[in-house]
Amino acid sequence: MINISRAHGIMFHHFCDDRHPRGQGAISADELAAMIRFLGQDRILSAQEWMRRALENTLQPDDLCFTFDDGLRCQYEIARPVLEDFGIKAFWFVYSSILEGSLERMEIYRYFRTTHFADVDDFYAAFFDAVITIKHSQRLRDPHARFDPRTYLENVAFYSENDRHFRFVRDEVLGPAAYQWIMDSMIERMGLELKELAADLWMDAAALRDLHATNHVIGLHSHTHPTRIVRMTDAEQTREYTDNHSILTRVIGCPPLSMSHPCNSYNSATLEVLRRLGIRLGFRANLTYEERSELEWPREDHSNVMRALEEKAA
Ligand SMILES: [Zn+2]
Description:
It is built from eleven helices and seven strands. It is an alpha/beta fold. The chain folds into two domains: 8-102 and 201-313, Alpha-Beta Barrel (TIM Barrel); 117-191, no CATH class. The strands form two sheets. It has a five-stranded parallel sheet. Strand 2, helix 3 (73-86) and strand 3 (91-94) form a beta-alpha-beta unit. Helix 1 packs across helix 3, helix 5 packs across helix 6 and helix 9 (234-252) runs parallel beside helix 10. It is globular and about 60 Å long. The model has no long low-confidence stretch (mean pLDDT 92). The structure holds zinc ion. Residues 69-70, 221, 225, 262 line the site of zinc ion.
């Protein structure tokens, strides 16, 4: 166990410009630059320096680092030049199935929702319509589940009622198989293909090699990005991280030493396989300062930093 420190990472996902659409939570290059000035450029350590101090247990309470999850191309094209302007080197946590040509639907569906509907409520309306016409009732997880907007996901304050209703139908009524069937058929009915929607979503091996060659740090984020890795067996978890480890090692030419937990999901079996793979540093997806291991460093979501910045500006 390490000392309780307030040092933490900042967690980034989506960025937008003329080519990459402004989906929920996406920020522009200018917004990232404003955020760096707001946080204080000097507090933001390079990833390698953060790792060194973390291993030596010499991180100071104000120390920060930047982390980019999911291997997204918009991060490389939009955030990376801003980091360069400020001389910041970051962690990039990459799930590796995308490097083998696999199409991870979570990201494709998000892109579809953002680019083919006027707004998210317009998408929800089309989605609920598609659910009503579903003929495959045997695929439903629980056709009789009852939605209560007051109690479902009540701990996430910023969800709208529609956000809650969508997540309820997706996770409680449909389950993964029926949800995928509905989304894929919506995409097909609009004359689109998963492959073309995915064309600009992820970095390729060349981009990762470029980051690695310029002193950014590439780390693990599982192979297929399961949303609940703790529901997998120990053997499946081992597979997720050994595949991720061997593919990234091949791409950048040396074994990664850091990682972040997809959807903040992990248990003792996860930590064990990571240690076996030689991972020295890991990040959670939220800010908790309770006593923790070297594989559970806290991170603040960038949206919370953005909100603090806007409050200050107001
Ligand atoms: Zn992720």
